[in-house]
Amino acid sequence: MTEENIKRATLEEIRAMKDRGELFYDPNAPEGPELGDEFWENAALFGPDHKTSVHLKLDAEVFFYFKQQGKGHITRMQDVLKAYVKAQKAKEAAAAEAEKAARKTG
Fold this sequence. Notes:
Elements: H1 11-19, H2 37-41, H3 60-67, H4 73-105
């Protein structure tokens, strides 16, 4: 979800929206689709505070590249790092699978 999609409202504003009929809740709405075993194979459980605070020195060029894009530059940097980790893990998993397949055939 991006920042522009987030709607902020006070409790009073939400109550007023409900009174005006602008909020809709259907207790008989159907459940979402079942998530199969395939979905849960790579699921990971994280506690509510699974972040680690670090002090990091960055090249000025890198820092200012993200900062010039505006608010949320730290989050964008973290997103890039997460994507890198995900790609590296996929690469490692593929290498392990290839090694496993090679042992079976050879």
